[in-house]
Specification:
The chain folds into two domains: 4-139, HUPs (Rossmann fold); 153-288, Rossmann fold, CATH 3.40.50. The protein is 42% helix and 20% strand. It has helices spanning 13-29, 45-48, 50-76, 90-101, 113-119, 124-131, 162-165, 168-178, 202-221, 239-249, 271-280; strands at 4-8, 32-38, 81-86, 105-109, 136-139, 153-157, 181-188, 191-193, 196-198, 230-236, 254-258, 285-288. Strand 1, helix 1 (13-29) and strand 2 (32-38) form a beta-alpha-beta unit. The chain is elongated.
Length: 310
Amino acid sequence: MIERILVGTEGSQAADNAVSTALRLARAADAEIRAVHARETPEGARRRSAAGRQVAHQRERAGERVLEAVTERAGKVDVPATTVIDDRPPAELLLAQAREWGADLLAIGAQGESGFERAIRGSVADQLIRGSPVPVLTVHQPPSTDPLDPIERLVVPSDGSSAALSAAPVARALARATGARLDLVFAVPPRIEGGELLGPTDDIEQAAATLADDALAPLERRYRGTEIERERRVRHDAPHRAIVHHADERDADMIVMSTRGHGSLERVLLGSVVDKVLRTSNVPVVTVNPPGEDDRVASPEGQGPQGART
C-alpha cells in the first residue's frame, strides 16, 4: 500500500513540482504526506553573533512559510499533511525521515535538464535516488495535469533480470492504490550496420518476441491473482528512448523502474539508461533500488523492496 509520501521542499519551482505530484498521488491513493525542509543553518550560527542569529531566524521563518504553503495546498485537496524543519543537510534529513516516519515513497523535484545533468552526479538527487531505503519519485517537468486528476496508467519497463523485477511490487502497490493500469515494456535496441540504421525484419520481430516473452513473462506473473489491468508492449528503440517515448505516446502518469538491470549491453536498464530517463522524461519517474548487490536474487513475490507495502 501507499500510505505515507515524504516530499522534500525548499520553495523552488522544482520542489513545487514534486509537491504537486505528491499531492496528486496522495489524493488518488488516500495517503498522507509529510513535507520536509532543510534550512541548512550553519552549526552554531545562533550562538556566534547577532548577525548569525538573525540569519538563522530568517532561514527558519522562510522554511516555515514554505511548509505553511504546502499545508495550505494539501488542505485544499483534502490530503492530510504534517511538516518537519531541521538543520541537517537535505539528503541526510530526507533519508532519516524516510526511515523514521516509515515512508512508502519519497518525492523530489529535479531542475531543468542542464541543471539536473550537473546534479545527478554526486548531488542530493543522486544520493537520494541511489541510497533511499524507499522508492523515489523524481519529478522533472512541471505537472501538466490537475492535482485532482486520477492516476490511470503506469509504465513498467523490464529486461527480465531479478534487479529489474524488483520494481514490480512497487508498481503493484501504486496500481492497487490508484486503480491505474500497467504497460509492461520491453525495449529492442535498433541494429546498425555500415553506419545505417536497419528497420525490423521478420526475423528480428520473431527474435524480439521471444526476448520480450522471456523478459515480460516473469514480470507479468507478479500481477497474477490481482485485478490490475495490464498489457505487454515491445518497442524497437534504445532503452531510454523506448521508455520515454512510450510514456509520452500513451499519456502515462508515471514510469516505475529499477535503478539496475541485466548485465548485457543489449538489455541493460542500468546507470546511464536510468539517468537518461530521469533527465528526459516528461512524466514523473519512480526508481526502486534492488535489495542487495546480487541481482540474481529477486525480491520475494508479494513483498515490496525497502519500505513499500503491497
